[in-house]
Each structure stands twice: as structure tokens, then as C-alpha cells.
């Protein structure tokens, strides 16, 4: 049976890493769209649009078409938000992983290999707002290789790296729609610290919430 190997990133991994990141982020579009539909303002717009057109046109078809168009526009808004984030990330740290993570102090980027194929990624670097912590970033595993313990192995790699360098904790940020990630982090001992809206206009419009988690390494060591 093939084994999982966690190793440091190499330049030849670049395209695979970008693909894993892009596909992983794109998976959250459907759940984010459903999150948007559950928001009271969205439901009010849909209801008012339907009722207003039904009353004014005396036709059932027109309001149905109008609501369909509003839903399509809402989904495109979600797609735009994720595509913008993906594009920004690919142009920033993921465009120069070696320079961003491997050549900087207390930073690193790892990939997970399964049967010689890169199927997962994770990284960490110092957090600007929490000097005593390293921040876990870019955690992603191919859909075809989930439920195999790869994500846990990647998270443990970051925790060990952080502990070895004398930092007190690992922090990370995930979104309210990433329920599987939340379950994983909480299972591994991370505690939810706070929730906050994405500061951009679209994030506020969608009521898209980010969650900050923290793993206290001293307590984690005692529990183990």
C-alpha cells in the first residue's frame, strides 16, 4: 500500500500546487452560494421582485424569469469573489513560494505525496498581528485523496515546526462555509477565537464570515 510522505516544496511542484489550490477554493462556490441564499436580505430581494412583477404584470412567467436572473447574478457574484481571491493569491505568495516561504525566517511550505503524486499542501509563516504565533496557510488536499489522514498529517507538520521554533501557538483562518475544515481543526485541538466579516464590500454584502482558530502548543503537548 502506498504511503504518505510530507516533504518540503520544490520548484517543480509549482503548477501542481497552484492547481490543488485553485480546485480546492473553487469547491466552495456552491456552499457559498447557498449561504448567500439563506441571508434575509437576499430572500427579501427575491420575494419583493417576484411579488412586484407578479402584481404589475399579472403574469406568472415574468416574475419566475426575473427571479431566475437574480439567482444567476447572485451566483456570478460568488464566482467573482472566489476568482478574485484565487487570482490574487496566484499573483502573490503562490507565484513565488520559494521566496515567500522557504527563504524567510520561521516560514515553510510542504507538500504531501501519495504514491509519488503531490496531493496536498500546507504552509506557515509568522503572523503580523500575533508575534508569538505562526499562521497555518494554504492547507488543501485533492478531493480524490481525502479521508486518508493527509490533512491531519499536514497540520501536525505545521504544529511540530512551530513548536520547534519556540512559538506559543498556531493560528489559522477559515470561512464559515468550510464546515469540513472546521471539524478537522476542532478535532485536532484548535479553539475558535473570533468571527469577523470579510472587509471587502462583496464580503459584507454576502455576510461572508471568517473564523480565526488557535492551537495552544503548550496545552497540545500536555494533552498528548
UniProtKB/TrEMBL annotation:
UniProt key word Membrane: yes
Transmembrane segments: 60-82
Residues annotated as domain N-acetyltransferase: 69-211
A GO MF term: N-acetyltransferase activity
Claim: Nucleotidyltransferase is one of the keywords in the record: no
Keyword set, alphabetical order: Membrane, Transferase, Transmembrane, Transmembrane helix
Alphabetized PROSITE patterns for the sequence: GNAT
InterPro entries: Acyl_CoA_acyltransferase, GNAT_dom, NAT_camello-type
PANTHER family: GNAT FAMILY N-ACETYLTRANSFERASE, N-ACETYLTRANSFERASE DOMAIN-CONTAINING PROTEIN
Protein's name in the database: N-acetyltransferase 8
Amino acid at each position: 500500500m502506498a504511503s504518505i510522505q510530507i516533504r518540503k516544496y520544490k520548484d517543480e511542484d509549482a503548477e501542481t500546487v497552484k492547481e490543488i489550490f485553485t480546485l480546492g477554493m473553487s469547491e466552495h462556490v456552491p456552499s457559498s452560494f447557498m449561504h448567500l441564499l439563506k441571508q434575509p436580505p437576499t430572500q427579501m430581494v427575491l420575494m419583493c421582485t417576484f411579488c412586484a412583477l407578479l402584481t404589475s404584470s399579472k403574469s406568472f412567467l415574468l416574475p419566475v424569469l426575473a427571479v431566475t436572473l437574480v439567482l444567476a447574478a447572485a451566483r456570478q457574484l460568488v464566482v467573482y469573489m472566489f476568482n478574485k481571491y484565487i487570482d490574487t493569491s496566484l499573483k502573490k505568495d503562490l507565484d513565488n513560494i520559494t521566496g515567500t516561504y522557504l527563504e524567510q525566517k520561521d516560514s515553510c511550505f510542504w507538500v504531501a505525496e501519495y504514491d509519488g503524486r503531490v496531493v496536498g499542501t500546507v504552509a506557515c509563516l509568522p503572523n503580523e498581528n500575533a508575534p508569538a504565533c505562526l499562521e497555518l496557510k494554504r492547507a488543501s488536499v485533492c478531493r480524490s485523496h481525502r479521508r486518508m489522514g493527509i490533512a491531519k498529517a499536514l497540520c501536525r507538520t505545521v504544529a511540530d515546526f512551530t513548536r520547534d521554533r519556540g512559538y506559543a501557538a498556531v493560528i489559522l483562518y477559515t470561512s464559515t462555509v468550510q464546515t469540513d475544515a472546521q471539524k478537522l481543526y476542532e478535532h485536532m485541538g484548535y479553539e475558535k477565537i473570533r468571527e469577523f466579516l470579510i472587509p471587502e464590500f462583496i464580503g459584507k454584502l454576502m455576510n461572508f464570515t471568517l473564523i480565526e482558530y488557535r492551537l495552544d502548543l503548550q496545552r497540545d503537548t500536555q494533552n498528548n
